[in-house]
UniProtKB/TrEMBL annotation:
This is D-alanyl-lipoteichoic acid biosynthesis protein DltB. It comes from Chryseobacterium carnipullorum. Keywords: Acyltransferase, Cell membrane, Membrane, Transferase, Transmembrane, Transmembrane helix. The gene is dltB_1. GO terms for molecular function: acyltransferase activity. It is found in: Cell membrane.
Length: 471
């Protein structure tokens, strides 16, 4: 059930009405409805995996207090049991088939058994929630949740099930246990965020998708300039698709009275790769920073900058691997880790450059463009189905045909990307791309009508898929 589908619109409208009008002022009833809605949402995709979600939640509920109440070896046993079950389940569904096939290829096993394992919806997102819950209890940052309804809701929360963000228990659990009041102002702002998310997904991302697919799936027939142009378009497609879905997730959660993690902060205007990752998929990068990168830095602290470089590279290899069982994803992460080396050597890793003017200076613009080039270069690995295809694309890009005129340049696509960049730029210091409360009412309404017109006229509703649901 995609956020942009009629089925979800009818589903959410029904949930919203029951939630605020029938279950109003009854917290337990609201939470029960919320959990039932999350399971219906999940089951709409495939009921068979609903048992896995419920079972994971039940194990988490049982192990939480055990981790908190025990000490020494017993505590480690409960913690490791929870982590192994959570991560092991993710590994089986997401990576086991890949390793079996790779093993068979390595030893040239001709009569190999090809495993067809379906990846459960949102398993990467809810697994990371469970893992952070266990680790926060172990580190005394969070008390184990005794309210089963709240905990089960935290794990299965449907607005962020398929796209993230990866909320931690310390943020979402307290909100599940206190009365929620609908405020018209918050509802209006949530609707604005949903509208902008729908524009990014339906109009920008879905319009670009056929072009990038046509280029990458048949890259041998295209010039280097066309493949390079495809990589640039893919950055905007991926950003519009993922951030658009995240905007809608945040907006739907706000309509239900929840404030969840902001996942994007205008990464297209980042002036270096470190700033880009502070603004892109924020919940994943902050999760890995807390639970992977920081422990690695502490472990490698005696090695100075070399230790910091090693920690960052390992962290980004994990970011790449999180996306799926492909060597190209691992290399994608490795390349981003290597991008950090000049910043570390020059002690500029944590240096933040905020653009304060209405227009970027030439230096700021140069930094932005250089960062985009670096990101687009790495995205070839992200887009390629395998290493052979990635090398073929890079071979095209570094050929003399790079200096030819690229194909597939469409004024409509460039215009839609231009509108996206303009709106983002105008609101780069705001909470989200359509946070336009500061504008006068006439200008605001004109912008809303304009975006609705673009969605109705240029929106591609036939492509209901969402790039990150495969992760």
């Amino acid at each position: 059930m995609q956020f942009t589908s009629i089925a979800f619109f009818l589903f959410f409208t029904g949930v919203f009405g029951l939630y605020w009008f029938v279950c109003k002022k009854n917290l337990k009833l609201q939470n029960f409805l919320l959990l039932a809605s999350s399971y219906i949402f999940y089951g709409f995709w495939d009921w068979r995996f609903l048992a896995l979600l419920v079972g994971s939640s039940a194990i988490t509920y049982y192990l939480g207090p055990k981790i908190a109440e025990t000490h020494g070896k017993t505590k480690k046993i409960y913690l490791n049991t929870g982590l192994v079950l959570a991560i092991g389940t993710l590994f089986y569904f997401k990576y086991f088939g890949f390793f079996i096939d790779s093993f068979a290829d390595l030893f040239d096993i001709k009569n190999k058994i090809t495993l067809s394992i379906i990846l459960p919806l949102g398993i990467s997102f809810y697994t990371f929630r469970i893992v952070s819950y266990f680790l926060d209890i172990k580190n005394n940052k969070l008390k184990p949740e005794t309210d089963a309804l709240a905990l089960f809701n935290y794990i299965a929360f449907f607005p962020s099930m398929t796209s993230g963000p990866i909320d931690k228990g310390g943020l979402l659990l307290p909100q599940l246990k206190k009365e929620r009041i609908f405020k018209a102002e918050d509802g209006a702002d949530a609707a604005r965020q949903i509208l902008y998310g729908a524009f990014k997904k339906l109009v920008v991302a879905n319009s670009i998708t056929p072009i990038t697919q046509g280029i990458f799936q048949n890259y041998e027939a295209h010039s280097g300039s066309t493949v390079a142009f495809g990589a640039i378009l893919f950055l905007f497609e991926l950003y519009a698709d993922f951030s658009g879905y995240s905007d809608m997730a945040v907006g739907f959660a706000r309509l239900l009275g929840f404030k969840i993690t902001k996942n994007f902060a205008f990464p297209l205007f980042a002036q270096n790769i470190a700033e880009y990752w502070r603004k892109w998929h924020i919940s994943l990068t902050s999760w890995l920073t807390e639970y992977v990168f920081t422990p690695l830095v502490i472990q490698f602290r005696d090695y100075g900058k070399r230790g910091l470089i090693a920690a960052i590279i390992l962290n980004f290899i994990l970011i790449g691997a999180w996306h799926g069982p492909r060597f190209t994803f691992v290399l994608f992460g490795l390349l981003h880790g290597l991008y950090y080396i000049p910043l570390i050597v020059k002690d500029k890793l944590n240096k933040k450059k905020k653009i304060t003017g209405n227009f970027p200076t030439l230096t700021e613009l140069g930094n932005i463009l250089l960062t985009m080039v670096m990101v687009c270069f790495a995205l070839v690995l992200f887009a390629a189905p395998d290493l052979k295809a990635a090398l073929g694309m890079y071979g095209k890009i570094f050929s003399i045909s790079l200096f030819s005129v690229p194909q597939f340049i469409k004024i409509k696509i460039l215009g839609l990307i231009g509108i996206l960049i303009l709106i983002d730029w105008m609101n780069k210091d705001q909470e989200h791309g359509l946070d336009v409360k500061r504008l006068n009412p006439l200008a605001r309404r004109g912008l809303y009508v304009f975006l609705i017109f673009l969605i109705m006229y240029y929106g591609v509703f036939s492509n209901g898929s969402y790039i990150y649901e495969q992760f």
